[in-house]
Amino acid sequence: MLWAARVSGFFSAAMLMVVLSPSLQSFPPAEAIRSSQFDSHVRFPSHIAGGARGLAFRRASAFRNAADCSNTTGNVCDPSFVHIAITLDEDYLRGSVAAVHSVVQHAMCPESIFFHFLVSDPALGDLVSAVFPQLQFNVYYFDPDRVRGLISSSVRQALEQPLNYARNYLADLLEPCVRRVIYLDSDLVLVDDVTKLWRTDLGRRTVGAPEYCHANFSKYFTDRFWSDKQFVETFTGRRPCYFNTGVMMLDLARWRRKGYTRRIERWMEIQKSPAGRIYELGSLPPFLLVFAGHVAPIEHRWNQHGLGGDNVFGSCRDLHPGPVSLLHWSGSGKPWARLGAGRPCPLDALWAPFDLYDPAASAAEWSR
Ligand SMILES: *[C@@H]1O[C@H](CO)[C@@H](O)[C@H](O)[C@H]1NC(C)=O
Ligand SMILES: *[C@@H]1O[C@H](CO)[C@@H](O)[C@H](O)[C@H]1NC(C)=O
Predict the structure, then answer these.
(1) How many domains are contained in the chain?
(2) Looking at per-residue confidence, does 58 or 368 come out higher?
(3) Which of 3, 26, 143, 357 stands the most exposed, by the fewest C-beta atoms within 10 Å?
(4) Whole domain around residue 114: which residue ranges?
């Protein structure tokens, strides 16, 4: 919380709140009155919103498991849970909320999903329970000081947010009984049942992800890297391919046994050493260094990435050929920003149905 206050520099007058959605009408009124979660306005401390931005969200519709789903106990260690980890921060909040919404809407067994939210401000957990009253989740504070000394300062700023590195620490942050987790970025939506992804067999691999062996792998590393025999030897005996770290299945039990967190940190230390950079972009290259060539391949349908395009308005991307289970707006353009600016790309229309942001309520809050 202190950190959030420090980076935003001042407490803004704007507030986060949740307004009552019409979808709530599916709840019996008596229950609605009993539960304090059903107050029509749930307000959050002003410092969360950051800057002078007011954000209000509608409450998601109720969801229920299908009859043949296994019944979960509510204990995070229940072995029948599907585990999903996702970050929540003020900048990508609208995206994270839409991602969660898309997951529960497409799941046959939404009550059997356990979410793990990595946050820069623990109060964001209150927002999640107000928007998704039924959601089973835990909140984990990620201390930015854990990576501050390991992050380089000279690359694109968005890629150097400390929370981007929280995925490196899932094995430490999550409960030891959580042996496997799906990590999802905040700029994506699922259009299929996440349980199908969860059933992917990783074999003896630690990381599962769609691989792209035609992508130019060498461009992620600098000349200093490629000219150092010792560095290059790290890839000896493997066929390294690019993979996107925005959608990954992680075998946390194996990760803990093999100490991969430390291996990733060692590459980050080399990157920060005075001898010069060995790679360009943020949190991805250390994953490539440790895991590329040892990844369990996941069907490409689970990461149709690149839909964000670049900074230039109008540079819209199309889907890759083949079936689609997950749409990922990686790249610098985000659907919520383009929709807000009234200049969306055609595919942004596929993100919009999962958006729970309420512009009218946000505007009302703005003018208070
Ligand atoms: C789960 O619980 C419900 C309600 O108690 C019950 O009807 C259903 O048969 C149970 N499902 C399983 C797979 O045990
Ligand atoms: C791959 O990227 C490197 C570094 O940017 C470049 O020098 C090389 O020509 C590229 N290779 C191909 C086949 O495009």
Answers:
(1) 1
(2) 58
(3) 26
(4) 2-367
Cα distance between residue 339 and residue 156, in whole Å:
23
Instruction: Give the integer Cα–Cα distance in Å for 301 and 164.
Output: 23
Ligand closest to Cα of 65 equals 1
pLDDT tens digits for range 311-359: 665 688 888 889 999 999 998 899 999 998 998 999 999 999 999 998 7
- The first and second tokens of residue 14, run together, are 């704007």
| Cα dist from 29 to 24, 25, 59, whole Å | 9, 8, 16
pLDDT digits (tens, 9 = 90+) for 101-155: 999 999 999 999 999 999 988 889 999 999 999 999 999 999 988 888 888 665 5
pTM: 0.85
Q: Which two tokens stand for residue 340?
A: 């807000």
The pair of three-digit structure tokens given for residue 92, joined into one six-digit string: 């990508």
Say how many Å lie between the CA of residue 216 and the centre of ligand 2.
6
Q: In the structure, how many helices (H) and strands (E) does the chain have?
A: 15, 14
Give the residue among 334, 360, 332 at the shortest CA–CA distance from 348. Answer: 334
Coil/strand/helix, residue 133? coil
Which tokens hold the place of 279?
A: 């790679």
Q: Are 192 and 106 in contact (CB under 8 A)?
A: yes
Taking every pair of Cα atoms in the chain, the longest distance, rounded to a whole number of angstroms, is 70
Hey, is 31 helix, strand or coil? Answer: helix
Of 8-22, 43-57, 323-337, 342-356, give the lowest mean pLDDT range.
8-22
Tokens of 17: 């709140």
For a pLDDT cut of 70, what percent of the chain falls above it? 80
Backbone angles phi, psi at 307, to 5 degrees: -70, -15
Report the CATH number at residue 82.
3.90.550.10
**8 Å CB contact between 245 and 285:** no
- Cα 224 to averaged position of ligand 2 atoms, centre (Å): 15
Q: How far is the CA of 251 from the centre of ligand 2 (A)?
A: 32
Ligand nearest to the CA of 214: 2
Residue 363 has pLDDT above 60, yes or no: yes
160-180 pLDDT, tens digit each? 688 999 999 999 999 999 999
Q: What whole-number distance in Å separates Cα of residue 325 and Cα of residue 118?
A: 24
